[in-house]
Amino acid sequence: MIEDIEKNNTRVVILERARHLFLSLGYHKTTMRMIADAAGVSTGPLYFYFRNKAEVFFHICSEAFDYLIYDFRQAAEQDRHAGLRLRDIYYAYKAFYYREPQLFEIMHVATNPMIGIGLPQALEETINQKSQDLVKVMERVIQEGIARQELRPINPCKLALYLYSVAEGVFLSHNMGVLQQCGIALDEMIDTAIDLVGLGMMDFHGKCPSKTGEVGIVKLVR
Fold first, then answer.
1. Which domains does the chain have, with CATH numbers?
2. CB of 83 within 8 A of CB of 222?
3. Are 180 and 186 within 8 A, CB to CB?
4. Which residues pair with 202 in a beta bridge?
5. Contact, 218 vs 199, CB < 8 A?
6. pLDDT of residue 205
7. Who has greater pLDDT, 112 or 27?
């Protein structure tokens, strides 16, 4: 039991130190020797946990996606209007962005073809699938919302991709300093995106509750 705990702790330390190295030096300049030194272990134990650098990077990205998928599902599984659940998914993503800025950044390193990480095909396919899982969580909420006449009958896959792309665009714009240059806070931009997107996807013949519980209000505000 104690041995298992020690193994888990060592693995956590390795991944944490490797994450810092990947973000500060870049994937290509980081070596297994650097990871071992940063984690305070020799290369022997490091190779016991991970076969190579690509596998270390994969596990960091994979766990990051798992955390976010869990947060998306928690918001999606509430017994609420579909529009409100989609709004809560946006807020869950924002909370993740604030809580885990390094994981957010490294997720986008993994999925950016311009950086050229070059993961083995099986690992790359797993990361891509997890990225798609985020969209699929939103797609299922949309399908339910359409069936309940809470949302307009728009193609669920296309709408989910659009909503996800909008969120990604907002967060990446904040990372690049675009929002700051325009004097707009991230929270304000997220709220604006929710309001504008919400107005476009509501079914005006259905019922959309506002924060006061009134019927017929389509603006999704906190």
1. 1-50 (1.10.10.60), 60-222 (1.10.357.10)
2. no
3. no
4. 151
5. yes
6. 53
7. 27
- Which tokens in the block code for residue 21? 């190295």
- Rounded CA-CA distance 132/127 in Å is 9
Q: Judge whether residue 195 has pLDDT over 90.
A: no
3-state helix, strand, coil in the chain (%, to 5): 70, 0, 30
Determine contact, residues 199/219, Cβ cutoff 8 Å.
yes
What CA–CA distances, in Å, run from 218 to 141, 182, 206?
Answer: 17, 28, 10
Measured CA angle at 167 (ends 166, 172), to 5 deg: 100
Quick one: tokens of 122? Answer: 């099986």
Q: Taking a C-beta distance cutoff of 8 angstroms, is the pair 110, 128 a contact?
A: no
* pLDDT surpasses 50 at 211: no
